[in-house]
Write a structure and sequence with these properties.
Helices cover 41% and strands 14% of the residues. It is of the alpha/beta class.
Length: 398
């Protein structure tokens, strides 16, 4: 039999998706499962989004569309950027098949083989594969729970080398829920200003922030970074539309031109219905986002109350996204009903097998000894699942 590509033969699927599928399989067997694994927002978009989609179906021509995305959709994105104080032109933007596609295409467009891509760890699990598929080298920068899972300017300075091509920055953070303060962002911007590297700002959770905190951007802190800044956005998280597959990029014109060329030679265009729905989401009433954030805060508080009751477990307080990322290293090496908890992967296996609670091990996010809880499910399920979560840790042998 002919051989397959060495590169893609070793490309792994998403560990988050794998755990989610296992949880769903157990549920089909009749098990009561509390699925805290998958990073979906747990709500649907407002009715006007569906009305726009229905109208688009009725008016669909069936034709190929612009690989850059419709003017209507990109103008809606431009208005979103303008609300943040950023001025871009239409030819400095493009729409993509979700933010995942945006990041994959950007790494291919910006990197040569052997170039290094820096990002704080813990990191979104797909970053490693995304970088490697571009023949680039992922360089995680370890940021432990003792520093609130946040990157310091000293760490960033030390990590940048002549091989560094991209600094990839996600704020608020998936998987930790951490939100960088204005001062923390400014300090990182000072370092980046000194080094000639591309900056990809992964802003997917910028609207999901609690406790009176605000979203602060590297470009606001240092406008001179604009010529090297790439902003990635999506309707997936803030608008409850992960399955619609619409993301966005704002970047210098030459980068956008290359992004559009990649799209033309791959997926060609985002479906008409998705584009119309996404444009309606961006331009319609935004008050529902505040309502969803209030619900997320209530769920966050319920999760943190449970976590804080577990002796030996440490969890920096998340103020954004819809994740908590407790450090469970205290329990590694101990026994659960006679079975040794060898690592975070085994801990999550035992947690799912014994109590039906599905979480993603921290090693999937480059931080062994932790786990991620996605608290986007309904509050009743969340609270019931967290009771089982607490019970599991109470059963671990001291």
């Amino acid at each position: 039999m002919p051989q397959v590509s060495d590169k893609y033969a070793h490309t792994e699927g998403s560990p988050i998706v794998a755990i989610n599928m296992k949880a769903k399989a157990l549920a089909k067997e009749g098990r009561e499962i509390f699925n805290f694994s998958i990073g979906v927002p747990g709500f649907l978009p407002p009715q006007h989004v569906y009305e726009a989609a229905t109208k688009a179906v009725n008016e669909d021509s069936g034709a190929y569309l612009s690989s850059a995305g419709s003017d209507e959709l990109r103008e809606a994105f431009l208005n979103l950027l303008k609300s943040q104080g950023f001025t871009y032109s239409l030819d400095e933007t493009c729409a993509t098949m979700g933010a995942k596609n945006a990041l994959t295409s950007l790494c291919q467009v910006l990197c040569n083989a052997g170039d290094e891509v820096l990002f704080p760890a813990p990191f979104w699990s797909n970053y490693i594969q995304t970088v490697q598929m571009a023949d680039a080298v992922p360089v995680p920068i370890e940021c432990g729970s003792e520093q609130g899972y946040k990157l310091t300017p000293e760490q960033l300075e030390a990590a940048i080398t002549p091989k560094t091509r991209i600094f990839l920055f996600n704020n608020p953070s998936n998987p930790t829920g951490m939100v960088y303060t204005k001062a923390e962002i400014a300090a990182l911007a000072v370092v980046l200003k000194k080094h000639d590297v591309w900056i990809i700002s992964d802003d997917l959770y910028d609207k999901i922030i609690f406790d009176g905190e605000e979203f602060h951007h590297l470009l606001t802190a240092e406008p001179e970074l604009r010529d090297r800044m790439v902003i990635v956005q999506s309707v997936s998280k803030s608008y409850g539309m992960p399955g619609w597959r619409v993301g966005f990029v704002a970047a210098p014109k030459d980068i956008i031109k290359m992004m559009v060329s990649v799209a033309t030679n791959t997926f060609m265009n985002i479906p008409h219905v998705s584009q119309k729905a996404a444009a309606a989401a961006l331009t319609g009433d935004q008050t529902f986002i505040e309502e969803r954030c209030a619900e997320f805060k209530q769920k966050r508080d319920a999760v943190m109350d449970s976590l804080e009751s577990i002796e030996g477990l440490v969890c920096p307080f998340p103020k954004g996204a819809f994740y908590a990322f407790p450090d469970v290293s205290h329990f590694i090496g101990k026994k659960y009903k006679g079975q040794t908890i060898t690592d975070d992967v085994r801990l999550c296996e035992l947690l799912l097998e014994s109590h039906g609670v599905a979480c993603v091990p921290g090693s999937a996010f480059g931080h062994p000894g932790a786990l991620r809880i996605s608290y986007a499910c309904d509050l009743h399920t969340l609270e019931k699942g967290m009771v089982h979560f607490e019970t599991f840790f109470s059963e671990v042998e001291a």
